[in-house]
Amino acid sequence: MKLYGTTTSPFVRRVRVVAAEIGEPIDMINTAHEDGQKQLRATSPIWKVPVAEVDGRTLFDSRAIIDWLVTTRGWGNLAPPKDRWHEGNVINAIDAALDSAIQLFYLKRENVPAAGTPFEAHNLGRADAIFQWLGTQLAPDRRSFGGGGLGIAEISLVATLDWMDFRQTYPTDRAGLCNHLRGVWADHPSLATTRPHT
Length: 198
Ligand SMILES: N[C@@H](CCC(=O)N[C@@H](CS)C(=O)NCC(=O)O)C(=O)O
What we know:
The protein is an alpha+beta fold. The protein is 55% helix and 8% strand. Strands 2-1-3-4 form a four-stranded mixed sheet, with helices on both faces. The structure holds glutathione.
């Protein structure tokens, strides 16, 4: 699979982890570089990563890529959802917290002051509410949401919290019980080898 992305993006990391768990090799086009960015823009009108070229298809968005991989290759070492509609809610919530933090990060990167604004408070408040709710959705052993082990929701949560720390966009000590799940999987090889770093 040809994958357009960066080594720091939390959405790209989800795909890299899933690919590792199901044994799908990745040929990465680094979109942090000018040439890779040019190739991305020639491939996707959304200009966001990840984008994949796989089995003669071009797929935009981590959810579509992951869907394709598990549908055509099977779940490999991953835990399939026990209730895909509930898992959908969990992943949508994680995406919303991550998107809020990403918006704050982009403002900081472009030197647009957001600190102390209602916009910042709104986005941090949403992330607080989401992590609090996610904490109530954990299985009793707090290793997963559905009780089945490492699946897409768990990977998404770990990638989100690690990226928030990496970019310092949200104080993850406020994520409460979700940090327990992250701690459980921290040394799992596909997650440990894809952690963002400079
Ligand atoms: N819903 C998309 C979100 C992807 C996304 O936001 N990617 C960020 C990097 S983490 C990006 O490419 N941002 C570039 C931009 O917003 O222009 C997915 O799941 O793939």
